[in-house]
Write a structure and sequence with these properties.
With 175 residues, the chain is α+β, with helices and mostly antiparallel strands. The chain has one domain: HIT-like (HIT family, subunit A, 2-Layer Sandwich), CATH 3.30.428.10. The chain is 30% helix and 14% strand. It is built from 6 helices and 5 strands, in the order H-H-H-E-E-E-H-E-E-H-H. The protein has a 5-stranded antiparallel sheet with strand order 1-2-3-5-4. A hairpin with a 3-residue loop joins strand 1 and strand 2. Helix 4 crosses helix 6. The longest helix is centred in the middle third of the chain and has 22 residues. The chain starts with 17 loop residues before the first helix and ends with a helix. 22% of the residues are buried.
Length: 175
């Protein structure tokens, strides 16, 4: 295939993601240092502005800005720590408790058929922000790998992050 030849992909333009791809909006010093780490900075801002769904003693739940599916939450310790083995017992317990609560909340809000849970430890393992540990809670539905990505080769996101945060925060508080 040469440059300019069609490759069979339809494109949905998402220019807002370019800053993530290029790192152009990365803080001075990058994401690796606490002064620039979005997971360290987010709790210092209003929940609605940073899409924080819930706060605990040692961890918080925040929407992924680049979600795989609507409701994709991240469970993050407040402390800037990269590796799961570096968590304290209290942090480990609260990560687990928040993960369970996130699943219950998402189930009540949108009835997914299943979940992907996981931590990518290190950049080589796929962690976009490897310096600050975060647990992914990704709701899954039968058919969420439907004709759009399979045939249309695109992914649709039916809900704005602000609306998703409002819905999940409301359900989280009620449970």
């Amino acid at each position: 295939m040469s440059i300019g030849e069609p490759d069979g992909l339809e494109r949905l333009w998402t220019p807002h993601r370019m800053s993530y791809v290029t790192g152009s909006e990365a803080p001075e010093g990058g994401y690796e240092k606490p002064a620039g780490c979005p997971f360290c900075l987010a709790p210092q801002q209003p929940d609605e502005e940073k899409h924080i769904v819930a706060r605990g003693e040692t961890v918080f739940a925040i929407l992924n800005l680049y979600p795989y599916n609507p409701g994709h939450l991240l469970i993050c310790p407040y402390r800037h720590v990269a590796d799961y083995t570096e968590l304290t017992e209290e942090e480990t317990a609260e990560v687990a408790a928040f993960t369970r609560r996130a699943m219950r909340t998402i189930r009540r809000a949108s009835s997914p058929h299943g979940f992907n849970l996981g931590m990518n430890q290190g950049a080589v393992a796929g962690a976009g922000i490897a310096a600050h540990l975060h647990q992914h809670v990704v709701p899954r539905w039968g058919g969420d790998g439907n004709f759009m990505p399979v045939i249309g080769r695109t992914k649709t996101m039916p809900m704005l992050l602000a609306d998703t945060r409002e819905l999940l925060a409301k359900v989280w508080t009620a449970s």
